[in-house]
Amino acid sequence: MEKRRIAVVSAGLSVPSSTRLLADRLAAATVAALRRRGVEADVEVVELREHARDLADDLVTGFANAGLRPALEAVTGADGIIAVTPIFSASYSGLFKTFFDVVDKDALTGKPVLMGATAGTARHSLALEHALRPLFAYLRAVVAPTGVFAASEDWGGAGEASHGLAARIERAAEELAELVATRPAARAADPFADAPSFEALLGGV
């Protein structure tokens, strides 16, 4: 069975978090959809709230510290990304934007992304289209057509059924799985690939 890596970026601030809950639901549905295509997926979750200070350090120094590097490598080395943010003031959270600000601007080129967002009211649902989609378009990612938004009334029981959250999750996961399964597996970038050999250095090249 083929193998792929899925990175899940969750920008939720509370514990427990509806943002993380949506991210987990999207990840589980994507793993199942990939398995139906003969692909086994490894999922790594990046909780941005754990890296808030690391991200601030990166902004002022220009370098990712030891705490942030594994999170960045998980995202840039993944075959597909599930990115979920809470919506504040009709847009993504500052923590979410800061993370993608410090990701190398070319690292997501051609990489499949599934967008998700949560908020207390459905009035914020268009933030997926006017905020998140342009962000990932700028980064030249390949964004799944269906973004998944979940307001408070979408969760649980009759509310989830009547608002179609489960169906949206399944549709978006199928789209991401198709993008990931039909794309060659990502290879981890070697940061020393362009470094000269010792022989070249000793030879004065």
Q: How would you portray this structure in words?
A:
It holds the Pfam family FMN_red. Residues 5-155 form the NADPH-dependent FMN reductase-like domain. InterPro entries: CE1759_FMN_reduct, Flavoprotein-like_sf, FMN_Rdtase-like_dom, NAD(P)H-dep_FMN_reductase. By secondary structure, the protein is an alpha/beta fold. It has a single domain (2-202), classed as Flavodoxin domain (Rossmann fold, 3-Layer(aba) Sandwich), CATH 3.40.50. It has helices spanning 18-36, 52-61, 69-76, 94-102, 127-138, 157-163, 165-181, 198-202; strands at 2-10, 39-47, 80-88, 91-92, 112-119, 142-143, 148-151. Strands 1, 2, 3, 4, 5, 6 and 7 form a seven-stranded mixed sheet that branches. α2 crosses α4 (94-102). The mean pLDDT is 90.
Write the layout of secondary structure elements.
Blueprint: E1 2-10, H1 18-36, E2 39-47, H2 52-61, H3 69-76, E3 80-88, E4 91-92, H4 94-102, E5 112-119, H5 127-138, E6 142-143, E7 148-151, H6 157-163, H7 165-181, H8 198-202
Parallel strand pairs: 1-2, 1-3, 3-5, 5-6, 5-7
Antiparallel strand pairs: 3-4
